[in-house]
């Protein structure tokens, strides 16, 4: 390790320690913290965020980074230091381009927007939220101007969670998805009766559900000596380092699928975090490539594995042993069909594989129009209803199950595209894994997930951010981001399921 | 608020946020963290500790503190700023007197000493630990020299947890306790058969024990909207602010008393933390006076309340409802006697009210001799055995249940005196509470703990560190630290119990 690299690393480790400490506080806030802790926790988190930010934007850090950049300029192509420089430079640029005053304003506005969002939800009326949201749109434009962008201001927001993503690329991607999925949804809606999911409803004891979810992700390879699952209202994954990855779930005893697939989903995120390269731990290079690539891992384990026939050939006997009265007489085919029931619905987080991306398209197009000034905040519900009707054939009866359903907009715009990137990437990676592992379905049917996890570890997890999304996809799958494998997978699977 | 106070407070709040964040990380480490988190957590905690330390010893902090001190010089006596200055000055002096190099050396040596302590425990042989411990004694002397002391170097170590405590005062206190307790222990040992505790052993379901402990401290006034109980190997209390106080316990199904009294004990610590003054939260003035005063609150609820006849008049029906087969036929007198069984034993943490302070006397005298150079580290087991024989009439068969039993020495010397201060103060406060609340026993027998908690809130908790130990005791009880109420309580209670 060179002196300049050592000097840079020392500073990166300290910043990472502060950020991971904040992650622990955030995890506790969502899992165990009593209500009385709210105020103090907010203050502690604000102090930690400002400490980490201060350190990143300090003139000393800038000097160290410039010296390192100079050194790297002479390094051979492929030297890992190029990738480290890229990831650190990106974090540094983002932090330095956004004035502290703007960040503070965003934090205050987020609190204000959250409060008015809660009030609007109580009133089931978007117009209560609209004034604060209008300010948030203005602020999002201001942030975009501060960050800069290639073509239009929305690019800057997309880039925050998906490095390199532009509005044009995202619009094309969603356009391709819409072109195939909208007619598929219509066709399925005409044959709803062909799939029955009633076996998933009844009474499923909490503790048994908990155990069964853990059994599945243990089989996937989630390492419980380096992680754990707890309960929270909204499931999430967070990491305090490669040795300590936390996932959460919530259980409803009325249905089997909700908690089970939530555990598979978060377990997929967790497997990615546990597989990140320990040698670059505590630096940006040791982190996931993007939100979308992260989502590809949760979707892969939840959907491509968890909602497949081979998986249920392996897992049904375990589900039957756990819930004999509910699943005793159920066949693999029964449960495979039940967990793949498709229904155009109003709520994104409950959406199935076919309809999910259409929810993202609604939000993306509304956000883009807002950023371009072509849509006013107060007119969002109308645009929302029109797009829901057009893409999904359903219209929310009120804003609670319409434009007020997601919390995301209380913090700003641009956070949705990763979900669709994740879906698309999951199928690209899955297809490549299938080519590499000739007998992948048989392995899964035998409960042997090691070849699949090995592939993901090798082709993605262990890279950290050494490659970009595009670079990793080209190496692992032979192609950049493309909707083809995803659409082939969805059309094949659901045409067969619904007999189209 | 003056400008100088505002400037000082701003810095104190930031330091407190960092320290509370570290407390959250420490809590998680002891409760939920998977094994794989060890290394990362150590790094995060080290970074937070160094951030807090840096900020406290910075020249800017020194300037702000000096400016504030100047302002306070002119303030009227009794102005709260005097107390704030005293507490902040103390923290600042301690931090600035100890060179970073010395602190870092102590941290490294603690790791080394811990490892050799673990190895020594495996070998049941103190000589394995002695070399590292000898270094720790040397380092403790170095720390004492850096901090300064009035008479002998051990004073400096005692002062760290008990502000103002000196070796002489501690030796006198323990001397008085020994003079009364050693003969009492001997007398009781001759009449062991007069108290039977067999009803406390059997099978007590984990979840029922958990619920019963919570029921007791809920009745005491522990506010679960501002705190919670979790599980850990060793019970402890930690606070992330007055709105979020965490206690822990561990449950063995073989016995009732262990977890129950542990919950009462930690609940007592927790009540103190929840009662600290919110208006001085996040400053040293908003914190507990000392370890010993903290211990007085845990001991008061555990022993003076929890091991009393009135408490069991109130609580026995609840314990009977929870454990009908075990306690159905038990009388108040039966359980009162059982939970007050006295037995000279080898392990401090299992010691009863009568013998506890004698364990402290052993450690205190060994430590003092080490600090004075009158005893070598390798000779500790011999001195230990001699003192155990003299004070308790029992001798450890090996070092595992002798000089290796406590983890404290892996981190340095001086941490034990607070336990005896706590016992003594608990009885002083109890006596004063009884004078103020004429019908205290009746209130307790009715499950009405509000008058007692109100007294503690008013006379101690809400003060924070506005008073010293001595100052608070004089105001609340009319006297400084004195063993008289404690010895009167112990002698009265146990003479009656054992028919002496």
Please provide a written account of the structure:
- The structure is a homodimer of 500-residue chains.
- Chain A has 21 helices and 3 strands.
- The model of chain A has no long low-confidence stretch (mean pLDDT 96).
- A 3-stranded mixed β-sheet of chain A has the order 1-3-2, sandwiched between helices.
- Chain A folds into 2 domains: 95 residues; 379 residues, Orthogonal Bundle (Neurolysin, domain 3), CATH 1.10.1370.
- Chain A has 500 residues and is mostly helical.
- Chains A and B meet through helix 1, helix 2 and strand 1 of A and helix 1, helix 2 and strand 1 of B.
In short, what is this structure?
2 copies of one chain form a homodimer. By secondary structure, chain A is an all-alpha fold.
Q: How does the SSE layout of this entry go?
A:
The structure is a homodimer of 500-residue chains.
Chain A: H1 3-31, H2 38-57, H3 59-73, H4 80-97, H5 100-123, H6 126-147, H7 153-161, H8 167-189, H9 206-220, E1 227-231, E2 237-239, E3 245-249, H10 257-275, H11 291-305, H12 309-322, H13 324-327, H14 332-338, H15 356-371, H16 380-392, H17 417-436, H18 440-445, H19 450-459, H20 469-477, H21 484-498
Parallel strand pairs in A: 1-3
Antiparallel strand pairs in A: 2-3
What is the CATH architecture assignment of the largest domain in chain A? Orthogonal Bundle
What overall form of chain A do the CA principal axes indicate?
globular
Supply the helix-strand structural class of chain A.
Answer: mainly alpha
Number of domains of chain A: 2
Q: What's the total number of strands of chain A?
A: 3
Strand content of chain A: under 5%
Distance between the termini of chain A: 60 Å
CATH topology of the largest domain in chain A, by name, is Neurolysin, domain 3
Name the helix and strand elements of chain A from N-terminus to C-terminus, one letter apiece: HHHHHHHHHEEEHHHHHHHHHHHH
CATH top level assignment of the largest domain in chain A: Mainly Alpha
Helix content of chain A: 55-70%
What gyration radius of chain A follows from the Cα positions, in whole Å?
23 Å
**SS summary, helix count of chain A:** 21
| Largest β-sheet summary of chain A | 3 strands, mixed
What's the arrangement of strands in the largest beta sheet of chain A?
Answer: 1-3-2
Low-confidence residue ranges of chain A = none
> Could you tell me which chain pair has the largest interface and how many residues each side has?
A-B, 41 and 41 residues
Oligomeric assembly: homodimer
**Average pLDDT score of chain A:** 96
């Amino acid at each position: 390790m060179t002196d300049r690299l050592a000097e840079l690393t020392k500073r990166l480790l300290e910043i990472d320690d502060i950020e991971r400490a904040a992650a622990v506080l955030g995890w506790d806030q969502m899992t165990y913290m009593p209500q009385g802790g709210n105020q103090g926790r907010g203050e502690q988190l604000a102090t930690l965020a400002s400490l980490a930010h201060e350190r990143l934007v300090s003139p000393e850090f800038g000097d160290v980074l410039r010296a390192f950049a100079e050194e790297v300029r002479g390094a051979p192509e492929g030297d890992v230091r190029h990738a480290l420089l890229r990831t650190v430079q990106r974090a540094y640029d983002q932090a330095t381009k956004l004035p502290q005053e703007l960040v503070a304003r965003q934090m205050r506005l987020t609190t204000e927007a959250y409060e008015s969002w809660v009030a609007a939800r109580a009133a089931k009326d978007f117009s209560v939220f609209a004034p604060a949201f209008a300010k948030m749109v203005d602020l999002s434009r201001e942030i975009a101007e501060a960050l800069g962008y290639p073509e239009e201001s929305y690019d800057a927001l997309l880039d925050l969670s998906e490095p390199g993503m532009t509005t044009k690329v995202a619009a094309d991607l969603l356009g391709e998805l819409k072109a195939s999925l909208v007619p598929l949804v219509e066709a399925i809606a005409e044959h709803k009766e062909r799939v029955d999911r009633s076996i998933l409803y009844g009474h499923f004891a909490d503790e048994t559900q908990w155990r069964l979810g853990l059994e599945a992700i243990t089989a996937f390879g989630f390492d419980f000596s380096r992680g754990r699952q707890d309960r929270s209202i909204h499931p999430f994954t967070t990491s305090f380092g490669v040795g300590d990855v936390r996932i959460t779930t919530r259980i409803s005893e009325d249905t089997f699928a909700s908690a089970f697939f939530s555990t598979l989903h978060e377990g997929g995120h967790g497997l990615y975090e546990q597989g990140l390269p320990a040698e670059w731990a505590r630096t940006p290079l040791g982190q996931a490539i993007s939100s979308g690539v992260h989502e590809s891992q949760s979707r892969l384990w939840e959907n491509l594995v968890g909602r497949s026939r081979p998986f249920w050939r392996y897992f049904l006997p375990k589900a039957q042993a756990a819930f004999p009265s509910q699943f005793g007489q159920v066949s693999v085919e029964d449960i495979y069909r039940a967990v793949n029931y498709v229904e155009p619905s109003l709520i994104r987080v409950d959406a199935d594989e076919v309809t999910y991306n259409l929810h993202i398209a609604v939000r993306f197009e509304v956000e883009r129009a807002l950023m371009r000034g072509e849509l006013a905040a107060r007119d969002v519900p109308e645009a929302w209803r029109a797009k829901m009707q057009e893409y999904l054939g359903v219209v929310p009866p009120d804003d609670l199950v319409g434009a007020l359903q997601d919390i995301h907009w209380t913090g700003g715009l641009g956070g949705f595209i990763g979900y669709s990137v994740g879906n698309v990437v999951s199928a690209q990676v899955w297809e490549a894994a299938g080519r590499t592992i000739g007998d992948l379905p048989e392995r899964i049917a035998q409960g042997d997930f090691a070849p699949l996890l090995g592939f993901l570890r090798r082709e993605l997890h262990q890279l950290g951010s050494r490659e970009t999304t595009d670079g990793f996809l080209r190496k692992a799958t032979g192609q950049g981001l493309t909707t083809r494998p995803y659409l082939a997978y969805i059309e094949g699977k659901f045409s067969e399921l619904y007999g189209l």
